[in-house]
Amino acid sequence: MLKLNQINMVFNEATPDEKIALDQINLTLNTGDFMTVIGSNGAGKSTMLNVISGALSPDFGVVEIEGKDVSRMPEYKRSQMIGRVFQDPMAGTAPSMTIEENLAMAYSRNKKRALKKGVDKKRRELFRESLETLHLNLENRLNAKVGMLSGGERQALSLLMATFTQPSILLLDEHTAALDPSRAELITNLTKQLVEKDKLTTLMITHNMQQALDLGNRLIMMDKGQIILEIGTEEKKNLTIPKLMEEFQRIRGEKMTSDKALLS
Amino acid sequence: MFAAIFGSVEQGIIYAIMALGVYLSFRVLDFPDLTVDGSFVSGAAVAATMIIFGYHPVFATVVAILIGFLAGCVTGLLHTKGKINALLSGILMMIALYSINLRIMGLTSENSIGKPNIPLLKAETMFSEFKSFWSPLGIDTAINNFLTMVGFENLPSTYGTLFIMIIITLIIKFIVDWFLKTEVGLAIRATGDNKKMIRSLSANTDTLVIVGLGFSNALVAFSGALIAQYSKFADVGMGIGMIIGGLASVIIGEAIFGTKTIVRTTIAVIAGAIIYRVVLGLALRVDFLDPGDMKLITAVIVIGALILPQYLEKRREKRRKAKRHAERLLEHEQLRMKERSALAKAQSD
């Protein structure tokens, strides 16, 4: 389904600020896999997601989606197959447009946009039904501008928009990090619900260890542009935070203990 | 006085089409497009040149619209593919069009390559054609008889131009309203609102910017072609400061009529264009002002239109807050009184 083959990415090459963001990354996700990604800041998690989505093109390496090499495909074309939710609740929606208009744009993601009405009666009904599954009463505010919604509501809408057309791959980049704990839990549950409904192949970055353990069937840990730990389905079922911390310590050694705070 | 204001209103409705174009680039696409100063003249130049060559005015106007579309697309290409700053791509296109416009108008002259103006005094225009249909209807005399009865003097000779322009401008308004609600239109609006988001929803923002600017400048050129036929000449300098006038119309309209929905905003922009022309026309009637002061007046009007709404909004907000605060104080006071009387009652019991 998704395959990363020997991905390399260096920022500010040949300057004192040179940084190896991705170092020979190999990764395969099978259809229906839900993988959580953890790692400290600067580990290369977001860069990896951006390489998959096409927002960044890697220096070397191949990205394959559904067996097709998409390395040279521009971001907007790849987006037909990839749904994305960003960390910033403002990033995933158009604030000056209404809820139904935003959904209409998500609806035409995998179709050719034409000169016909974005929101018609049939679609409005469809949007209303999908919004009902969020239980946020948004179905009765179809004509409200998205800029008026709270961060949690916007993120829930972004999530719905990202999954609306059942993309081949769903990329979630710390999409609950900017929310308060109760809203974050709501979005986490919603993520579970939406991903399970369509069995979406998902890659989720999180700084919340508990979330990384609760969600999904696979887990990877990244550090300095490398995948340093990969945990499979069976292993993940019995994984706990202390165990993960232990593993983390074993691989990283003693010198980076300060990063512990970020992962707890 | 009446005739002067009437003329301003007529012009305002024609310029409103240009203002709608500026609304598309400036507000919808969030792209400060200075191509307008050039593409407005291109519209006028193409229409005037073709009319001189004997083409039907409607056909000439349609070609002018297409040329405007092309000009906008080139600006879009410079910005998206050439990665040139938005303002600079517009300015580059604007000065390039200056020379191109001279050459277009030069086609009518055998002695020179470029020509700075074309008079259309005796030529057939869309307005003169419409007039020959309109005049026999006798509506003009009917209206003027009525107005003389009510006591007006110096009446305009025809209302046909006003009538046809209201129809055309409203049609354009409905097309813009409809377009911005289509799938493509939604994507164009999102491009101005949140590029990252619409790209993640698989829209090619480059193409959308190019098409959006094309559409915007098509309207601007349309307006230019009509103004040339209305005032019976095309001049290479007629576009100077056009973008400012368009912007002023958009801002004035939005400030007065609001931006709640697209349907409302487009009508606000049209009204803004008319108000702007009327204010400009009235300013020029002040004795010590000269037609040469027009650009200065324009600048002052725009500065006023930019600053005044902020100031008014702030004052309104302050008043609203003060009122709400007073209400709340009163509520508290009443609550306390009630508590006190309840307490007193309890004690006396």
From TrEMBL, chain A:
InterPro entries attached to this UniProt entry: AAA+_ATPase, ABC_transporter-like_ATP-bd, ABC_transporter-like_CS, ABC_transporter_ATP-bind, P-loop_NTPase
Main localization of the protein described in the UniProt heading: membrane
GO terms for MF: ATP binding
Membrane topology designation: Peripheral membrane protein
Gene3D superfamilies: P-loop containing nucleotide triphosphate hydrolases
Keywords for this protein: ATP-binding, Cell membrane, Membrane, Nucleotide-binding, Transport
Record domain ABC transporter: where: 2-249
One Pfam family this sequence matches: ABC_tran
Coiled coil: none
Location in the cell: Cell membrane
Keyword flag rRNA-binding: no
PANTHER family: NITRATE ABC TRANSPORTER ATP-BINDING PROTEIN, TAURINE IMPORT ATP-BINDING PROTEIN-RELATED
Protein name (Swiss-Prot/TrEMBL): ABC transporter ATP-binding protein
Species, as recorded: Sporosarcina highlanderae
From TrEMBL, chain B:
Compartment(s) where it occurs, according to its Swiss-Prot or TrEMBL record: Cell membrane
Membrane-traversing stretches: 12-29, 59-79, 86-106, 159-180, 207-230, 236-258, 265-284, 296-312
Main location: membrane
Annotated keywords: Cell membrane, Membrane, Transmembrane, Transmembrane helix
Domain of life: Bacteria
InterPro entries assigned: ABC_transp_permease (IPR001851)
Membrane topology: Multi-pass membrane protein
Pfam families per UniProt: BPD_transp_2
Name of the featured protein: ABC transporter permease
